[in-house]
Amino acid sequence: MAEIETDRLLLRRWRDSDRGPFARMNADPAVMEYFPALLSRAESDYLVDQIEAHFERQGFGAWAAELRATGAFIGFIGLAVPRFEAPFTPCVEIGWRIDAACWGRGLATEGAHAVVRHAFDVIGLNEIVSFTVPANTRSRRVMEKLGMTHDPSDDFDHPHLVPGHPMRRHVLYRLRRDW
Ligand SMILES: CC(C)(COP(=O)(O)OP(=O)(O)OC[C@H]1O[C@@H](n2cnc3c(N)ncnc32)[C@H](O)[C@@H]1OP(=O)(O)O)[C@@H](O)C(=O)NCCC(=O)NCCS
Hints:
By secondary structure, this protein is α+β, with helices and mostly antiparallel strands. The chain has helices at about 20-25, 40-60, 105-125, 135-145; strands at about 5, 10, 60-65, 75-80, 95-100, 125-130, 150, 155, 170-175. The protein is globular and about 45 Å long. The chain binds coenzyme A. The site of coenzyme A has 20 residues, from β5, α3 and α4.
């Protein structure tokens, strides 16, 4: 299962030593602003277990992102097959979560560009999608910088959130392989 290298990042499988820093990120209200809840240590660890199980099942997943210069774990950038049903599923989603101390340096975009190439050239996908709440402009900027496009007719209510939940409405972005 391939590791992915960029100028500044190593995207790799998860290590036990990532669990502490990942749990701190998942307990940070800035990182989790556009998610329904902060995660406890146990919930964060369970998410790592699910990500690693996804790698075993699919051969790809949400890679742990490490700064090559220091070896520090700074979050994840990668791919996932959503388990819910929606008009655009089955699909492969690209997503990212980066430690707030590292925001605004182009790291998510740099890693995501490499993941897009991996998705199309190595895995052979024809399309990837990404979604978030409309207010998550940081994440939407990353989608736009990847060349993803948003058609408002694709917007959807997230099936895991109850009707009336303020984060239920989502925007969907798509990117098709054009080579
Ligand atoms: C989304 C996220 C991964 C971006 O990481 P990052 O490494 O800072 O991303 P980049 O530096 O590549 O790009 C961020 C872009 O958002 C812009 N941005 C930052 N703060 C912003 C704000 N308040 N409003 C609008 N745009 C903003 C940056 O300027 C940059 O765009 P630009 O290059 O056009 O200037 C990071 O903010 C994060 O982890 N957020 C919390 C988790 C999350 O919401 N994940 C996505 C769930 S769908």
